[in-house]
Amino acid sequence: VRTLEGHTMWVRTVALSPADEACRWALTGSLDKTARLWDLASGECARVLAGHSAHIYSVAMSSADGGGRWALTGSRDSTARLWDLSSGACVRTLEGHANLVRSVAISDAGGGCRWVLTASRDLTAKLWDLRGATRSAAPAKATSSPPAPVAVAVPAAGPPAVDGVASLLAALDMAGRNPAAVRAALNASTLPEAHPLRQMAIAQVHDWESLEAQAAREAAARQELQ
Predict the structure, then answer these.
(1) What's the DSSP call for residue 123?
(2) Cβ–Cβ under 8 Å, residues 77 and 54
(3) What is the pTM of this model?
(4) 3-class SS at 11?
(5) Rounded to an integer, what distance in angstroms lies between the CA atom of residue 24 and that of residue 33?
(6) What does the pLDDT average to over 118-145?
(7) pLDDT by residue (tens digit) across 73-102?
(8) For 137, left (φ over 0), alpha (ψ -120 to 50), or beta?
(9) Whole-angstrom Cα distance, residue 161 to residue 99?
(10) 88 burial class (0-12, 13-18, 19+ CB within 10 angstroms)?
């Protein structure tokens, strides 16, 4: 139906406007350090959100209300940014995480974009109080009084299970080009052996190991010639 073209590197994350707005808008985040707002009726890019100094890993979008529409982006630069989509301006930079911001969410029930939540590879999640964020220049702050506490069960020992596609993708991202780490992520995954993502990761590991073996053979041959 639509191909949205404009990013110059991988598109890492997407979000759609709420269903009650007929999915009119899409938000994409890319390794090119930008997010883009798209009008799905025309396929045109309506806004380019530029300001992060590293890859964008997560995006979220509020519903339209009397206070406007807002976007939230999380980046490898360890910050999240709140954007006014009517102008494309960054109205808040949320600083406090010690590693990349992997996931973001906006709570805009009742309008006003009061709370946002960010989760990071630094093993923390932060709830931010944005009261007045769209009206004043005071820095946003992480709140110590969330509207409702959430209990999180943590296993006593052993590596966590990698449950589902999103979790495996995150584990593979952390593993990078380390074959042993990729194999460990696959061993912890609950996805079936025949799942395409598992098969793709296994094939990639085999390719890396073949290249490493070839490089070792070439190095040994050069050594013999000397």
Answers:
(1) S
(2) yes
(3) 0.59
(4) strand
(5) 24
(6) 64
(7) 999 999 999 998 888 999 989 999 988 899
(8) alpha
(9) 22
(10) middle
